[in-house]
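pinging the channel bc i need a second pair of eyes. not urgent but kinda urgent?? the chain im working w is below, pasted from the shared doc
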Amino acid sequence: MKYIFTFLLIIGIGIAGWLLNLYNEIRGDLDKVVNYNPPKTTQFFDRDGKLIANIFKKEHRLYVKYEDIPARVVEALVAIEDTHFFEHHGINPDAISRAMIKNIKAMKYVEGASTLTQQLIKSIVLTREKKLIRKIKEALLAVRLETILTKEQILERYLNQVYFGHSYYGIRTAAQGYFRKDLFELNLKEIAILVGLPKAPSFYDPTRNLKFTLTRANQVISRMHTLGWINDEEYKDSINYIPKVYNDTLTKNKAPYIVDYAIKILHKDIKDIRSGGYKINLTIDLDAQKIAREALKYGYDRIIQRDEKLQKNPKNNVDHDGNEVEEGYFVNSLNGALISIENNTGKILAMVGGVDYKESSFNRVVQSRRQPGSSAKPFFYQTALDLGYSPASQLIDIGRTYNYEIDGEEKKWQPKNYGGKFKGIITLRESLVKSRNLATINLVTDVGIDEMYKGLENFGITGMPKDLSITLGSFSISPFDFSKAYSSFSNDGIQVTPYMINSITNSKGETINFEPEVKYVDSPEQIYLMKSILEDVVLKGTGRRAKVKGIELAGKTGTTNNNTDAWFCGFSPTIQTIVWFGKDDNTAMRRSEGGGTTAAPSFSYFYKKYLEIHPEIQREFQMPDNVKSSYVNGHKEYYTQTSPLPKTQMPVTNEAPNGEIIEF
């Protein structure tokens, strides 16, 4: 007997030593559980808190803290997975005994006895193989873990770590994915479905095997009823209930151009943007974004329809030189872009970088640089106004021939107006309203190219050739940068930089807010002179197709040589929108495709639809107090101290044609 006792003691000491040695080998693995920091999904929201997209690297996980997990979820989980969870110390000896007996009888592994603590360890640090050595390691770590973490901390980690099928990690992710609900909105049947999934997530996936899912969920409900954790009424109501299950995409990306751009600018400073669980609040209005996509597609479809009409008539199926072209010549590589911002803040309401993201993810708002054509003219005219010209100043609209040399060879430049005609004498206002090239070139010549160059630089437009070709928009600029420059007009002389990040909140709840970036460019009264001219562009000039009933709009069309680019850059009293159309390969569009025909209709569509969802927005422009008006040749004109009316054109009476008394 003595020898048997000694033998058993030696065996016991040996086993204890072996277990201690085994624990020492694996105890470092507990750090992964104790200092739990899984990859978490970053979410993007619009200005009203609507989800724009979920962005993640490998695992789609929306983290939830224990205090935000409903008690019913914990009860359902414990009922089906580990009834004595709050009583044991990491392992359940009774469950182990029952499982061992069943496995011995079956002569194979048929049942486990893992507690939730053991399942958590298995999920994070150990393999899922059904081997004895793994079970022993699991048990050792589970016992030790329960001396370090509280039960609540273990449950928080478990419910955020486990896989719920359909690429959902964590119960909050599964709740939003399968039911489009937050955890506190779930009913008992939905909770039962979720806690039943980790046992066999693929088999019980409700998007594919709802019948088996409901059977498993009813087991959970029955178990809760047996334990007395729900009453008869709750049991009956839940057992027959069939919830609506959704089969959503994981990212739910409603604005891919927006999200791509946001990630690009954030990744510079936030390296774990795809796995850090950030909450990114954007300036975007999802409703406006939807309208912007429709507006761009509307303009695109109109161009295609015109092209198809021309294709049916071979006589019209020619290029600018009169040569026949193949079918599809025009449509190939056609695309567009649109950006809309708040005038006074620069917050981007909508940004669409192309007609179809699936066809091309290239964001033409920020990545492309195109020539603006005549849409650059307001910057030249504003510079002239600030140098003492007024909207009533007379310009010469006649042709000139300019001689220059290239590599010693003399060349001539003979710019023309659209349509080839000229008017001789024309006012500054009419010149811009009708987008007269010759009058503009003569204005720049009179003011001086150096002064005009300084004026454009003041608006933030750089990288231009220092010659007269800039008057026809021969430089390149992105719609994004052009939007910034145009904000000088829409925001009364205070230029704002477009931006789309409102705030960033990290997984610890710490928030960083972003403010507008502004720059003083000009006085409100001087800008108002230009604004009144750009209103006329829409009312009776080249931008007539941009008009929208019920709201005052101002803007400028732009068309480059050979109709390669077509722009409309405009604004209402509160919102500015830039629209561009062209071909990605920089080849010419048809002669009929100019800013007024091609881009202005999309601009109009956007504002018309935007008014329907935001009828409360300001409809009329406000004139600064120190802007005066008078009548010149029967037409009302505005002037300021800096831009007085020409003395030779001042009326001799302050009575308007309709009898209205006006002030000088």
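so The longest helix spans residues 286-311. and The first strand starts at residue 42 and ends at 45. — does that match what u expected or am i reading it wrong
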